[in-house]
Amino acid sequence: MAVYTEVPDDELAAFLADYELGDLLSCKGIAEGVENSNFLLHVTAGHYILTLYEKRTAESDLPFFLGLMEHLSAGGLVCPLPVRNRAGAALGRLAGRPAAMVTFLEGMSVRRPDAKHCGQVGEALARMHLAGAGFALARPNALSVDGWARLFAQAQARADSVQPGLAAALRAELAHVQAHWPQDLPRGIIHADLFPDNVFFLGGVLSGLIDFYFACEDALAYDLAICLNAWCFEGDSSFNVTKGMAMLAGYGRVRPLEAREIEALPLLARGAALRFLLTRLVDWLDTPVGALVKKKDPLEYAKKLRFHQQATSAVDYGLMR
Amino acid sequence: MAVYTEVPDDELAAFLADYELGDLLSCKGIAEGVENSNFLLHVTAGHYILTLYEKRTAESDLPFFLGLMEHLSAGGLVCPLPVRNRAGAALGRLAGRPAAMVTFLEGMSVRRPDAKHCGQVGEALARMHLAGAGFALARPNALSVDGWARLFAQAQARADSVQPGLAAALRAELAHVQAHWPQDLPRGIIHADLFPDNVFFLGGVLSGLIDFYFACEDALAYDLAICLNAWCFEGDSSFNVTKGMAMLAGYGRVRPLEAREIEALPLLARGAALRFLLTRLVDWLDTPVGALVKKKDPLEYAKKLRFHQQATSAVDYGLMR
Do residue A3 and residue B31 have CB atoms under 8 angstroms apart? Predict the structure, then answer.
C-alpha cells in the first residue's frame, strides 16, 4: 500500500485545469503500488489514475514509461493510457512531484491464479513483447546480471542473519549465472514485474496489464521466466507444472519460442529467482521496523531457486515438445 | 490513511453474491478514515464504499451507525446510504470482520475552508440535527465529560513530556468544565466529528457528510462547538471570527439557537477543545513510533483552548445579536 503524498483540493483543481477532462468530482488515495502515490480520480470525463512519482522512480525514466504505455496501447495491448494535457504533455507536476494521469482499467487481480489465468498471462505477455517492437526509447535493465552483483555486495555481510549459509549460496549462484548468462537471445521491451498484482481479470478473462515502472530492454524469454516464478508456484513453493504448461503454451500461441530461448529457460528462471531474492533481501535488511511498506519474504525465492537449480530443461516447466 | 485488511478477490466475489449489485468490476483499497479499512468498489450497479470494521469500532454500535445513515438519508440529508443485501441486512461479514457497503458520495474535502464553506457546514449540521429527530436507537457519548476524566487519568502522568505544565493545565480545565457543564440543553443525535475531512464539496457547494462513526446522543450545540473548533481557526491557531459568524448564521438559518445554548457556547467550545486535546494526547503518547496512523498534534487544541478560556460570550465567536 502506498500513499506517500497528500494532494490538497486546490492544487489538484489547478493541475486539472490544464487537462480537458472537465470538473473534479472525487479523488481517493488508493493503496496500490509500493513505489509511488496513486489516486483514483473521478472527473466529468470519467475515471483516471493519478500517479505522483516518489523518489524511487527516476524522473529521467518517466518519458520511457509513459511513452511505452502509449506505444503498447496503440499496438492493441490493454494497459493504462497516459492522458495528455492541453499543451500535449503526458507528464506534469503536482504537490512538488512529477505527476501523470492514465486511464483507469477495470478488473481485479487474482489471489489464487489457476492454469487458465496462467495461460492468459502467457498470451498477454507475448502480445506485449510483439507490441513493444518499434518503440523508439531505450532503457537498459538496471536489475540484470550486473545489478545483481551490486545487490549481493550490499547484502552479503548481513545475509546470514536472514538464513545461515545464505551468503555463500547466493555467491555461488551469482557466479554460476554470471558465467552462463545467455547473450544472444531475442531482445525487446519486457515488463519485468508481471506479478499477479499487475494483471487484472474480469469474470475470469484477462482485462489488462498495469504498472510498467520496471519495464526495460532485455531478453524476451527472461520476462517469461519472471512470470513462471511469479505465477506457477504454489504457496508451499512447489512448482505447478500444469500452470507452467498453460503459461508456456499461451505464450507460444502468440510468439513461438526459439530453440535457443527454450534451451536457456532453466537458467533464465534461476536468474529471475535470484533477482527477486536479492531485491527482497536488500529491502528486508534495509526497511526500518514499522515502515509503511510491507516487507516480502526473500526466502520464498530461495525455495523457488532450488527448484530451478534442479531443472534440466524447459520440459521441467511444462513445455510440450 | 488506512487499509488494515486485504480482501481477496474470491472472498469479495462471494460476499457480493448476497447483494443485487451485479458483477464486480474493480476494488481499490482507499486511504480514508483511520479506524477502519475502506475500499472503493465498482460493480455493475455503480460505485460503493465497502467498509471492514476493525477492532476500534465496537460491533455492537454498528446497527446504530448504519441505521442512523438510513434515517438521515430518509430525512433528506446527503450522506452515505447503507446497501441492504438480499436478506435485508445492512451488515455482513468479510475477511473475518463485520462489513457493510454504502453508496459512494462524490465531492472533495477542502484543505483551506473559507467563510462560505463554514456557512454551509453550519447549515448542514443543523439539517442533520433536525433529520436525526425520531431515530429509534440510542448511543450515549462515551467521549463526553466523564470520558474526558478517564482520558486525563490515562495521560496525566506523561502529559508534561509533551509540554511542561500540560498536566496541571488539563487538570484545572477539566475541573472547570466538570463544574459548569450544562445539563439542560436541547439534545439529539450529533455527528461529533464533523471535521473538514468529513464534509465534501463540489464546485464550492457542500455535497454531503460522511463518517458517522462517532455519532451519538448529546447536546446539539456541543456539535456546533466542535465545528467551530474544527473549521474556524487559522493555521496559527487564531480564531477567524468571519468564519465563526458564517457558521453560526448558517446553523441559525436552519435551526435557531435557544438562549441557553447561546449562553453555553463558550463553555461548550472549551469542552470540545478539551475532548480533542485529550484524545490526541492519548494517541500521541500511545502510538508506537512508525505506526501506520499519522499522529495529530495535541497542542493545536491547547492553543484553541486558550482562545475559548478568554471568550466571554457567543459574540466572541461571531454570533450576531
Answer: yes
Q: Tell whether A1 is covered by a domain.
A: no
Same domain, B125 and B176: yes
Residue of A nearest to B288 (CA): A290
Last residue of a domain, one of A69, A103, A137: A103
Residues in chain B within 8 Å Cβ distance of A107: 25-26
B61 in the same domain as B152: no
User: 10-residue block means of pLDDT along chain A (321 residues)?
Assistant: 74 95 94 83 96 90 97 97 97 95 96 97 98 96 95 96 96 98 97 97 96 96 98 96 98 98 98 97 82 77 97 95 71
Cβ separation of A32 and B32 shorter than 8 Å?
Answer: no
Per-residue HEC secondary structure of A71-107 comes to HHHHCCCCCCCECCCCCCCCCEEECCEEEEEEECCCC
The alpha-carbon gap from B27 to the nearest alpha carbon of chain A, in Å, equals: 7
**Do residues A54 and A149 share a domain?**
no
Task: Tell me the ipTM for this assembly.
Answer: 0.86
Output the pLDDT for position B1. 41
Residue B312 has pLDDT above 70, yes or no: yes
Asked whether the beta carbons of B12 and B52 are under 8 A apart, the reply is no
Euclidean distance between CA atoms A8 and A5, whole angstroms: 10
Q: How far apart are CA A193 and CA A199, in angstroms?
A: 10
Read off the pTM: 0.89
Residue A178 lies in a domain: yes
For residue A31, the model assigns a pLDDT of 81
Domain that holds residue A223: 115-317
CATH code for the domain in which residue A197 is found:
3.90.1200.10
Give the span between the Cα atoms of A203 and A198, in whole angstroms: 16
Mean per-residue pLDDT over chain B, rounded: 94
